[in-house]
Amino acid sequence: MNLQNCYNFDDFRKLAKKKLPSPIFHYIDGAADDEITYRRNTSSFNDVDLVPNILKGVENVDLSTTIFDKKIDLPFYCAPTALQRLFHYDGERAVGKAAQKFNTMFGVSSLATVSVEEISSLINTPKMFQFYFHKDRGLNDAVMERVKAAKFDVMALTVDTITGGNRERDLRTGFTSPPKLTLSSFLSFALKPMWGINYLTKGKFELPNLQDHVDEGTNISTSIGNYFSTMLDQSMSWNDAEKLCSQWGGHFALKGVMSVEDAKRAVDIGCTGIMVSNHGGRQLDGSRAPFDQLAEIVDAVGDKIDVICEGGIQRGTHMLKALSIGAKACSGGRLYLYALAAAGQEGVERALNQYRAELERGMKLMGCTKISDLNRNNLRFRNK
């Protein structure tokens, strides 16, 4: 299989599996405990059917939307994800350039492998920074100021990693950041020599947004679950979130909201958006899927803040359903990470182009020419 044979999400996943050592692949691919929520994130879309309308004159379709006061050409964007240089040596550079080509938003993680300063100088597409609230308040303040100086458009506080999820695949494969060879993992790395050559020759692996403050993840190998459990502040509260929102002074979102009560509270503290998300099923297994929670959250706060559906999206039709419920946009990590691992920037561009084509085709078949045409009249829920 090669990139030209990748026509959908699963094709990119298969090619990524061919390219990556087992611990790296399963870090992307895995989730918490029995991975029930991970699977439900996608299967939830199958419980809703699309009802198309005909003879609507759909020659020209406008896929643009506005989130956080920024117009983007697609109603979906690349969610922030950690450690991208492990998946492809170009890492965030590749994803950022691809996002810019399609004029959509690019999310950058605190655990990114490229600095916010470089990202800011490299791309001018709208940018979101994913903020992890560390125990070290000096680190928090320093990161906040760097991101401000880099003129990012949105600050998104992750609120669903108060402790690490039980990612059993990572425990079995021995995945850490940075990677380390063990007796059990040696063969999987040896069987993917090009990954190793690129990892060793294409620049030092580092976490430039954090490494002046912490050694874990750069100089000291650690699992992501352990990093969350030991480095992040488990006392984080609504008061802390409100202070961060005020300190940032611009568009501020909470990433990982799953209840109506929390969505309303987000409005109260001054947030301008929320990501309805369960961290890709990687935290609390058995929790609801974002799509299952979307309608009640949109009904509660959708007229006050931007509600974004994040998680489990593998098709343009999934996005059509979330947008019809009332999401302002969709986002995802695996949405593009397999494509990044498969072929770098070229892979991400191919993936984004395919989602765009699926969306445009779906819009035409639904009888809609702009995102605002989508509404719940287009849907039927099977269990209602």
Describe what this molecule looks like in 3D.
This protein has a single domain, classed as Alpha-Beta Barrel (TIM Barrel), CATH 3.20.20. About 40% of the residues lie in helices and about 15% in strands. It is built from 15 helices and twelve strands. The chain has helices at about 10-20, 20-30, 35-45, 90-100, 115-120, 135-150, 170-175, 185-190, 195-200, 225-230, 240-250, 260-270, 290-300, 315-325, 335-365, and strands at about 50, 65, 70, 75-80, 105-110, 125-130, 155-160, 250-255, 275, 305-310, 330, 380. The strands form three sheets. It has an eight-stranded parallel β-sheet with strand order 4-11-10-9-8-7-6-5. Strands 1-12 form a two-stranded antiparallel ribbon. The chain has a two-stranded antiparallel ribbon with strand order 2-3. Strand 5, helix 5 and strand 6 form a beta-alpha-beta unit. Helix 1 packs antiparallel against helix 15. The longest helix is centred in the C-terminal third of the chain and has 33 residues, at about 335-365. It is globular. About 50% of the residues are buried. The mean pLDDT is about 95.
